[in-house]
Write a structure and sequence with these properties.
CATH superfamily: NAD(P)-binding Rossmann-like Domain
CATH topology: Rossmann fold
Structural class: alpha/beta
Radius of gyration: 18 Å
CATH class: Alpha Beta
Order of helices and strands: EHEHEHEHEHEHHE
Number of domains: 1
Strand content: 5-15%
CATH architecture: 3-Layer(aba) Sandwich
Largest sheet: 7 strands, parallel
Amino acid sequence: MIYPQRFAGQVALVTGAASGIGASVARRLAAEGACLMLVDRNQQQLESLAKELDAPESVLIRTLDVADEQQMQEAVTETVSRLGGLHILCNNAGIASNRNPATDQDLENWQQVLQVNLLGVVNGTKYASREMVRAGKGVIINTASIAGLRSGAGGNAYSASKAAVINFTQTSACDLGQYGIRVNAVCPGLVETGMTQVFFDKARDKGIEDKLGARCELLRAGRPEEVASVILFLASDDASYMTGQALAVDGGNTASLNMPGMKV
């Protein structure tokens, strides 16, 4: 497929790029002309993706933990020094939480989830936005979740972290709009990624894969590339007057009550 070169001459940093939504974003950005810094904790998968993209001069990889502020600062610095700037940041890295009820919360799990899902976004935004302010323009897209919009789509810690990402998206948009920087979020529904793989594998083992996503209006789970398409829209000039928004990419899941037994 031949894609338009919407991002020719632009540089993007994608976190959580080794698999799932992040890898799909990387593939589309590369196909549309962007130079990339891809970061993740999984070195092997990063190397595999870089080899697939086959563009050694325009695709860099770096193994890091987004929760580590210094590592994120260094990643931004390397991006600018080696690729010549930073125009797009995709804060995509995230982890799941356990599903303990409110009466049995695991504070260590809360801390881990908030460190990655929320502070990882804060770290990336902090250092990328400084470069964007100097340039007088830039785009930041955060991967939140429908779990941040309503209950039932994730554990307590995960849901709280994604709600915080949505709010930080809004406050960051207010902080950075005066510098020509747009900040938006996507809120995926059920999508097959590394984080959700266990659910898809169990469903396939039981022969009920077709039931996944059955509570969505489109009656199916989503694909990483479908979320990536919305992220690229938000990164492009087609969304030039959009900032501070959280777009649900969920097959209509949040459009109805979706109570058990409502769907035939």
